[in-house]
């Protein structure tokens, strides 16, 4: 599976962005998809997961602000980010694996990352 993330940019605090991650291959629907982020000097942090069955999970830091979704017909997963805060500034990565995990080290496939910068 090859992943291509896009949609990052510069936004003011309180604003919104939608990230996209396009996947290659015909078995996209069978993969668990997650978004992670990494700020300078920090470890990679999980921010959203959607299972092959469509169940979604979020950490408390983004719950109620971020929404993950998938369109299996388009082989694409999305991350809608609302009410953005300066602390959301990071490089955002999409990732894929065959079963549910919240740990970055368990993911087999990664996109190249897209920068999100939130100004105060």
**Number of E-type strands:** 11
Helix and strand content put the structural class at mainly beta
Question: How would a crystallographer describe the biggest sheet?
Answer: 7 strands, mixed
Kindly state the mean pLDDT as a whole number?
96
Percentage of residues in strands = over 45%
Residues in helix, %: under 10%
Short description:
The protein has 120 residues and is mainly beta. It has strands at residues 3-6, 9-12, 17-23, 32-38, 45-50, 56-57, 66-71, 76-81, 90-97, 109-110, 114-119.
Give a quick set of tags describing it.
0% helix; 120 residues; globular; 11 strands
Written description of the protein model:
- The structure is a single chain.
- The strands form two sheets. Strands 2, 4, 5, 6, 9, 10 and 11 form a seven-stranded mixed sheet that branches. A four-stranded antiparallel sheet has the order 1-3-8-7, with no helix packed on it.
- With 120 residues, it is mostly beta strands.
- It has strands at residues 3-6, 9-12, 17-23, 32-38, 45-50, 56-57, 66-71, 76-81, 90-97, 109-110, 114-119.
- The chain contains no helices and eleven strands.
């Amino acid at each position: 599976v090859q992943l291509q993330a896009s949609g990052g940019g510069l936004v003011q605090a309180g604003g919104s962005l939608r990230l996209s991650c396009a996947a290659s291959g015909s078995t996209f629907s069978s993969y668990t998809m997650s978004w992670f982020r990494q700020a300078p000097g920090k470890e990679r942090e999980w921010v959203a997961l959607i299972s092959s069955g469509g169940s979604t999970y979020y950490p408390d830091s983004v719950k109620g602000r971020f929404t993950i979704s998938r369109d299996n017909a388009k082989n694409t997963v999305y991350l809608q980010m609302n009410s953005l805060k300066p602390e959301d500034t990071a490089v955002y990565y999409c990732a894929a694996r065959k079963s549910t995990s919240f740990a970055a080290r368990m993911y087999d496939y990664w996109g190249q990352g897209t920068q999100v910068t939130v100004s105060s």
